Amino acid sequence: VDLDSDPLNCGSCGHVCQTALCGAGQCQGSSAGHVAAIGIDYGVVNPGTSAARLLGNAVFLHAHEPVRVSLYAQDATTGVRNKVTAIVNAEAAARGRSALVTNAMDPVTLGNEAAALDVDVVVVLPQEWAEPGEMVDIASGWGQPFDDFIGSGGVLVVLAEGDATQELLSTSQWLGPLELGALPLQSLEVASWLDALSVGVLSPFALSHAATSITPSAPLDASTQVVVSTSLDEPVVIHRVVAPGQ
Hints:
Layout: E1 22-23, E2 26-27, E3 33-38, H1 50-59, E4 67-72, H2 78-95, E5 99-104, H3 107-115, E6 121-124, H4 134-151, E7 155-159, H5 162-172, E8 178-182, E9 188-190, E10 212-216, E11 224-230, E12 235-242
Parallel strand pairs: 3-7, 4-5, 4-6, 6-7
Antiparallel strand pairs: 1-2, 3-12, 8-10, 9-11, 11-12
Helix pairs in contact: 1-2, 3-4, 4-5
């Protein structure tokens, strides 16, 4: 069979396209894009936990097989990069899926790859070593490329932690105006059972570390909702669904 064009074996043997359209080894047709911000420190999260399941649910929103995941890791620690890679691979195995995880160190190259749909999922790791203002410039450069990426069915996951993430989310406005804040150690609860990110997540679930609140500064629109919060309704995970072409 021709893996580049066969809708029953698109990109790999046995991968069936729901749209019955296959081109260049990828299923063709409209699909929603996604933006998720998760205020959990994945540098200390173990595979198989509810926090890991949340990240897996976000990554595997994309139907491409294998899903191509790019971790933006220019100013991230090696520890969080390795942990996230391990979690994604474990979540893939648990779902009978596979993932190709790569590390992106250059924001311009990553933006070009996203716009060209050469990657399916982008996970922005916490940029612990970023200089003040660095993520403002990066977010400005990512504006149009990532808008195109998300509008074409791409999945963008931002692991929200620290001042650099605040700069990224404030400048990009992917989820509207947000304020990040440190939370004390506590259990988290599912706030929306109907959201795809909450599937299979226990509620409440404990963390072994503090989390980050992600508080909207304006009312959320109908396409965006809080998925996980504290018992005091402080948002920790926010998810936006983007209709094709928007």
